[in-house]
Model the fold of this input.
Amino acid sequence: MAKKQKTESPGEELREEATTEEAVEAEVAETETVEAESVSDEREEKIKALEEELAAQKEKYMRLAAEYDNYRKRTASEKLSLYDDATAKAVSELLPVADSVRMALENLKDAEPEIVKGVELIKGQLGSSFEKLKIESYGAVGDTFDPNVHNAISMVDSEELQSNQIAAVFQTGYKIGDKIIRHAMVQVVN
Done:
């Protein structure tokens, strides 16, 4: 048998080597294809993971931006409220003076005109000061009674006014914005 192997021609050896090389090349090509598909799959997985991470970071950023916006609005509201509270506290100390001036004007009908004029000037100055501070008075005869802003002291029957209207004001009410500084004390029609 050894002789048979030696008797093979060199062309046959080349053909066997070419066939072997082709087989190796085919195997290498197949391996490269599998590796390329594997690499492609890995890239797609990485891209998908990065997209998910980006979406999570974007969501986190949007939540943080919303929290900051809420914080900014809340602090602005608190600052305004703090100003209103401080103004209300200071004005509440001046309200008895405003009441005294109002009562003085009601009782000075027979007084000298200079005295009446002086008290009216004081009332005007108090009114302009309250206006600058955005303090509003409320509770006038004929207004509709609102238990949220008025204190009803008594009830009365009246032919001139309708039911649930204010017949008399004993103490004027004051507010700054929606904050009540002092409730109005009133008499209400039955």
Q: What stands out?
A: Strands lie at 135-138, 150-156, 166-171, 173-176, 179-182, 184-189. Residues 25 and 31 are 10 Å apart (CA to CA). The first strand starts at residue 135 and ends at 138. The two ends are 136 Å apart (CA to CA).
